Amino acid sequence: MDILLWHKLLSPYEMAVAELMLKFNNLKREYQQQGRYCPIEQVIGRVKSISSILDKMERKEVGFDELEERIEDIAGLRIICQFVEDIEKVSALIRERKDLDVIEVKDYIRNHKDSGYRSYHLVARYTVETIDGPKAVLVEIQIRTMAMDFWATTEHSLQYKYKGRIPEKVSSRLSAAADAIIQLDREMSSVRDEIMDAQLSSKMRYNLVEDIVATIENMYRLTSRREVEKIQDEFYRIYRLDDMEELIRYHDQLDLIAQAYRAQSNRLGQGVKKIEE
Ligand code: 0O2
User: In what order do the strands lie in the sheet with 133-145?
Assistant: First the structure.
């Protein structure tokens, strides 16, 4: 058998995980910047360790020549959502992408595993550009809620501790915990609109304040310090009112004032140029 250069083999998988994490985090940022609800709460990525690949190869009787086709989770991405409803949305987002070709779906939410494991898995092909040219690799994307992730992470550690043979007493507790997780996800979904409203309004407030502060800082270059201080004091007064509508009104008003200052500064600039001519 030819020597297997593990680090050469794993390099494209490392590239795939790094690129996809960046892409999904960018997507998340875009939602936030536009003040839209983002179905992605967190993105985690990892390349499977060599020992874990070897264990899985043995468990599934996979030969070295079929390793890249049959071990589908060498590159793994996990997308954590707040609500069960978001999982569908993230799955649709992934299917629409041109850079990911979904080849397999494992729905352990509708059909949870005997262990109680719940998660939605997509296996997709993703191409990275290496120094030897393009290389398509398989990536497993696990999509689950925070509650599902909490359960799976805990159960995974126990699997490790008991080397896959969790005692009956512990596994029946885990099974009860899995039921509680289903109930928790249901409860959270029932107050989903309330939670989403609260989050969107806090994000909107954050964006408004960022905008206002940037506008005031720009004004500082166009007008006198006293004038800007007055504007800033007025902003602090409005902010303390804790009234979103007032803050929006002030934001829009400030935009108009800033436009007027800009126009005035442009006119003055042209005047100076004319005098110089
Ligand atoms: P690790 O250590 O997370 O990498 P299949 O041939 O489809 O039956 P395969 O390829 O194992 O088997 O696919 P499956 O069942 O979709 O599992 C892929 C990954 O999902 C696992 O990778 C786990 O991360 C996770 N997973 C699946 N079942 C369970 C479970 O019962 N409990 C927990 N906690 N996680 C699970 P690995 O390689 O098994 O493990």
Answer: 42-47, 75-81, 133-145, 120-130, 100-107
Domains of the chain by start residue, with CATH: 3-168 (3.30.460.10), 195-276 (no CATH)
Q: Is 19 a catalytic residue?
A: no
Query: How far apart (Å, rounded) are the C-alpha atoms in residues 79 and 43?
Result: 5
pLDDT greater than 90 at residue 124: yes
Share of the chain above pLDDT 90, in %: 79
pLDDT at 201 over 90: no
Report the separation in Å between the CA atom of 11 and the middle of ligand 1, taken as the mean of its atom positions.
22
Selection from 195, 189, 181 nearest residue 150 by Cα: 181
Decide: 130 and 12 in contact? Cβ < 8 Å: yes
Beta carbons within 10 angstroms of residue 61's beta carbon: 8
28: pLDDT confidence band, cut at 50, 70 and 90?
very high
Distance CA 94, CA 140 (A): 12
Q: Quick one: what percent of the chain has pLDDT higher than 70?
A: 96
Cα→Cα distances 118→168, 179, 265, Å: 20, 11, 61
122: which strand partners?
105, 141
Which is catalytic among the residues 140, 155, 168, 245?
140
Alpha-carbon span 23 to 139, nearest angstrom = 14
Tokens representing 107? 């729905």
Is residue 97 in contact with ligand 1, taking CB distance under 6 Å?
no
